[in-house]
Amino acid sequence: MGRTLANKKEIVADLKGLLDKSSLAIVIDYEGLSVSEITDLRNRLRPTGTVCKRTKNTLMRIAVEEDTQWQPMTQYLQDSSVFLLVEEELKDAITAYEAFQKATKKTKIRGGVLEGQALSVDEIKALKDLPSKQELMARIAGGINAVATKLATGINQVPTKLATGINEVPNSLARAIQAVSQKEESGES
User: What's the longest Cα–Cα distance across the chain?
Assistant: First the structure.
Protein backbone atom coordinates (compact mmCIF):
# COMPACT_ATOMS: atom_id res chain seq x y z
CA MET A 1 0.00 0.00 0.00
CA GLY A 2 1.43 3.39 -1.05
CA ARG A 3 1.62 6.58 0.92
CA THR A 4 -1.24 9.05 0.74
CA LEU A 5 -0.76 12.55 -0.64
CA ALA A 6 -1.24 14.01 2.85
CA ASN A 7 1.40 11.64 4.23
CA LYS A 8 3.86 12.64 1.48
CA LYS A 9 3.25 16.34 2.17
CA GLU A 10 3.93 15.71 5.85
CA ILE A 11 7.23 13.96 5.01
CA VAL A 12 8.28 16.83 2.71
CA ALA A 13 7.45 19.37 5.44
CA ASP A 14 9.51 17.34 7.92
CA LEU A 15 12.44 17.25 5.48
CA LYS A 16 12.24 21.02 4.97
CA GLY A 17 12.29 21.52 8.74
CA LEU A 18 15.35 19.31 9.12
CA LEU A 19 17.13 21.10 6.27
CA ASP A 20 16.36 24.50 7.83
CA LYS A 21 18.27 23.43 10.96
CA SER A 22 21.16 21.88 9.02
CA SER A 23 24.38 23.45 7.83
CA LEU A 24 25.59 20.43 5.81
CA ALA A 25 23.78 17.66 3.96
CA ILE A 26 25.63 14.53 2.86
CA VAL A 27 24.06 12.07 0.43
CA ILE A 28 25.11 8.45 0.89
CA ASP A 29 24.49 5.40 -1.24
CA TYR A 30 23.36 2.85 1.32
CA GLU A 31 22.44 -0.07 -0.89
CA GLY A 32 22.94 -3.35 0.93
CA LEU A 33 22.64 -2.04 4.50
CA SER A 34 20.48 -4.01 6.87
CA VAL A 35 18.06 -2.39 9.30
CA SER A 36 20.46 -3.04 12.18
CA GLU A 37 23.31 -1.38 10.26
CA ILE A 38 21.22 1.73 9.56
CA THR A 39 20.30 1.78 13.26
CA ASP A 40 24.02 1.54 14.10
CA LEU A 41 24.76 4.48 11.76
CA ARG A 42 22.01 6.57 13.39
CA ASN A 43 23.33 5.73 16.86
CA ARG A 44 26.87 6.76 15.89
CA LEU A 45 25.66 10.07 14.43
CA ARG A 46 23.18 11.03 17.16
CA PRO A 47 25.83 12.40 19.60
CA THR A 48 27.07 14.74 16.86
CA GLY A 49 23.62 16.28 16.40
CA THR A 50 23.30 14.70 12.96
CA VAL A 51 20.04 13.24 11.66
CA CYS A 52 20.29 10.17 9.45
CA LYS A 53 17.20 10.33 7.23
CA ARG A 54 16.16 7.61 4.81
CA THR A 55 13.54 8.80 2.35
CA LYS A 56 12.67 8.56 -1.31
CA ASN A 57 14.72 10.72 -3.65
CA THR A 58 11.50 12.11 -5.13
CA LEU A 59 10.37 13.46 -1.75
CA MET A 60 13.79 15.00 -1.06
CA ARG A 61 13.76 16.56 -4.56
CA ILE A 62 10.38 18.19 -3.76
CA ALA A 63 11.74 19.40 -0.40
CA VAL A 64 14.77 21.13 -1.98
CA GLU A 65 13.34 22.32 -5.30
CA GLU A 66 12.42 25.82 -4.05
CA ASP A 67 15.37 26.26 -1.68
CA THR A 68 18.47 27.59 -3.46
CA GLN A 69 20.67 26.59 -0.52
CA TRP A 70 19.85 22.90 -1.00
CA GLN A 71 19.07 22.66 -4.75
CA PRO A 72 22.58 21.41 -5.66
CA MET A 73 21.68 18.19 -3.81
CA THR A 74 19.44 17.13 -6.71
CA GLN A 75 22.48 15.98 -8.69
CA TYR A 76 23.11 13.26 -6.08
CA LEU A 77 19.52 11.97 -5.89
CA GLN A 78 19.68 8.55 -7.52
CA ASP A 79 19.42 4.90 -6.48
CA SER A 80 19.15 4.18 -2.73
CA SER A 81 19.90 7.30 -0.70
CA VAL A 82 20.36 8.11 2.95
CA PHE A 83 20.76 11.74 3.94
CA LEU A 84 23.01 12.87 6.78
CA LEU A 85 21.74 16.26 7.91
CA VAL A 86 24.42 17.89 10.06
CA GLU A 87 23.51 20.81 12.30
CA GLU A 88 26.85 22.10 13.58
CA GLU A 89 29.59 19.59 14.32
CA LEU A 90 30.73 18.87 10.76
CA LYS A 91 34.04 17.35 11.80
CA ASP A 92 32.49 14.98 14.36
CA ALA A 93 29.71 13.89 11.99
CA ILE A 94 32.12 13.09 9.15
CA THR A 95 34.44 11.23 11.53
CA ALA A 96 31.51 9.18 12.92
CA TYR A 97 30.33 8.31 9.40
CA GLU A 98 33.84 7.30 8.30
CA ALA A 99 34.15 5.01 11.32
CA PHE A 100 30.84 3.38 10.37
CA GLN A 101 31.88 3.06 6.72
CA LYS A 102 35.21 1.50 7.71
CA ALA A 103 33.38 -1.05 9.86
CA THR A 104 30.72 -2.01 7.27
CA LYS A 105 32.40 -1.22 3.93
CA LYS A 106 28.90 -1.05 2.41
CA THR A 107 28.25 2.65 1.91
CA LYS A 108 29.85 5.47 -0.01
CA ILE A 109 29.37 9.21 -0.11
CA ARG A 110 27.94 10.53 -3.37
CA GLY A 111 28.35 14.18 -2.45
CA GLY A 112 26.96 16.88 -0.26
CA VAL A 113 25.84 20.48 -0.01
CA LEU A 114 27.19 23.23 2.23
CA GLU A 115 25.96 26.85 2.03
CA GLY A 116 24.45 26.34 -1.41
CA GLN A 117 27.55 24.71 -2.87
CA ALA A 118 27.75 21.12 -4.10
CA LEU A 119 30.65 19.25 -2.49
CA SER A 120 32.60 16.32 -3.85
CA VAL A 121 33.65 13.39 -1.68
CA ASP A 122 37.14 14.89 -1.25
CA GLU A 123 35.73 18.27 -0.25
CA ILE A 124 33.52 16.62 2.37
CA LYS A 125 36.50 14.73 3.78
CA ALA A 126 38.49 17.99 3.83
CA LEU A 127 35.87 19.50 6.15
CA LYS A 128 37.12 17.06 8.77
CA ASP A 129 40.41 19.00 8.91
CA LEU A 130 38.70 22.27 9.82
CA PRO A 131 38.64 23.32 13.47
CA SER A 132 35.42 22.66 15.38
CA LYS A 133 33.10 25.44 16.52
CA GLN A 134 34.51 25.25 20.07
CA GLU A 135 38.10 25.46 18.78
CA LEU A 136 37.26 28.52 16.68
CA MET A 137 35.52 30.21 19.60
CA ALA A 138 38.54 29.53 21.83
CA ARG A 139 40.88 30.99 19.19
CA ILE A 140 38.74 34.10 18.80
CA ALA A 141 38.48 34.56 22.57
CA GLY A 142 42.26 34.15 22.87
CA GLY A 143 42.81 36.74 20.13
CA ILE A 144 40.44 39.21 21.74
CA ASN A 145 42.11 38.67 25.13
CA ALA A 146 45.57 39.21 23.60
CA VAL A 147 44.47 42.53 22.04
CA ALA A 148 42.99 43.70 25.34
CA THR A 149 46.17 42.74 27.22
CA LYS A 150 48.41 44.56 24.73
CA LEU A 151 46.15 47.62 24.85
CA ALA A 152 46.19 47.66 28.66
CA THR A 153 49.98 47.28 28.70
CA GLY A 154 50.34 50.10 26.17
CA ILE A 155 48.02 52.39 28.11
CA ASN A 156 49.94 51.68 31.33
CA GLN A 157 53.22 52.55 29.59
CA VAL A 158 52.05 56.05 28.59
CA PRO A 159 51.94 57.53 32.15
CA THR A 160 55.21 55.80 33.07
CA LYS A 161 57.04 57.21 30.06
CA LEU A 162 55.42 60.62 30.54
CA ALA A 163 56.48 60.67 34.21
CA THR A 164 60.01 59.64 33.24
CA GLY A 165 60.09 62.43 30.64
CA ILE A 166 58.78 65.00 33.08
CA ASN A 167 61.32 63.91 35.72
CA GLU A 168 64.11 64.18 33.13
CA VAL A 169 63.26 67.80 32.16
CA PRO A 170 64.67 69.44 35.35
CA ASN A 171 67.79 67.26 35.19
CA SER A 172 68.33 68.16 31.53
CA LEU A 173 67.68 71.81 32.27
CA ALA A 174 70.14 71.74 35.17
CA ARG A 175 72.79 70.12 32.96
CA ALA A 176 72.15 72.70 30.23
CA ILE A 177 72.46 75.59 32.68
CA GLN A 178 75.62 74.08 34.15
CA ALA A 179 77.12 73.65 30.66
CA VAL A 180 76.29 77.27 29.75
CA SER A 181 77.78 78.54 32.99
CA GLN A 182 80.93 76.51 32.51
CA LYS A 183 81.24 77.84 28.96
CA GLU A 184 80.77 81.43 30.19
CA GLU A 185 83.32 80.91 32.96
CA SER A 186 85.84 79.40 30.57
CA GLY A 187 85.24 82.23 28.07
CA GLU A 188 85.70 85.00 30.70
CA SER A 189 88.98 83.75 32.05
Answer: 126
Q: What is the pLDDT of residue 89?
A: 81
Phi, psi angles (nearest 5°) of residue 109: -80, 130
pLDDT in tens, 28-66: 988 878 888 889 989 998 998 888 888 888 888 888 888
- Sheet of 50-54: strand order equals 50-54, 81-86, 24-29, 108-114, 117-119
User: Hey, what domains does the chain have and what are their CATH numbers?
Assistant: 5-130 (3.30.70.1730), 131-188 (no CATH)
* Non-local CB neighbours of 104 within 8 Å, separated by 6+ positions: 33, 37, 40
The helix or strand, by DSSP H or E, that contains position 94, with its residue range, turns out to be helix 90-104
Residue 74: DSSP 8-state:
G
Residue of 162 and 1 predicted with greater confidence: 162
Q: Mention every residue, 6+ apart, whose C-beta is less than 8 A from residue 117.
A: 72
Which pLDDT band holds residue 26 (cuts at 50, 70, 90)?
A: very high
